[in-house]
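To the wet lab folks,

You asked to see what we're planning to order before we commit. Fair enough. Below is the target structure as tokens, and below that is the sequence we designed to fit it. If anything looks off to you, flag it before the synthesis order goes out.
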């Protein structure tokens, strides 16, 4: 399945505002308007790379729920959490949609776009 993962290591910098504190190969979602966040580490990065990842939708879903639980957005047995969970799952699966594998992306005003350097 095509997902967005960490593009660079912690030494990557093309500008003074670039950073990557996520783990290598970590699945990303939107963290802020200008940065992605890793679903495993909860740390931020300015770049992501579209990759073909060998995980099932269920595995990605469990990682996303764990991420939401750590952030206080998900509590087992709470009714209203389903909307936030669906929103985040849509983000995780949708970030790479429309981009070729290998494309490096950045966020601009909360939307992914190809990084042009």
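Sequence we intend to order:
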């Amino acid at each position: 399945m095509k997902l967005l993962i960490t593009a660079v290591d912690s030494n990557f910098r093309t500008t003074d505002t670039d950073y990557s504190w996520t783990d290598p190969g970590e699945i990303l979602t939107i963290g802020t308007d200008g940065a992605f966040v890793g679903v495993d580490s909860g740390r931020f990065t300015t770049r992501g790379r579209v990759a073909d990842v060998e995980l099932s939708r269920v595995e990605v879903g469990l990682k996303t729920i764990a991420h939401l639980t750590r952030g206080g957005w998900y509590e087992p047995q709470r009714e209203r959490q389903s909307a936030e969970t669906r929103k985040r799952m849509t983000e995780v699966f949708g970030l790479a949609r429309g981009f070729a594998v290998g494309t490096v992306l950045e966020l601009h005003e909360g939307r992914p776009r190809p990084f042009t350097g």
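Structural context that might help your review: Residues 57-70 form the longest helix (14 residues). The helical segments are 57-70, 81-94.

Thanks,
Computational group
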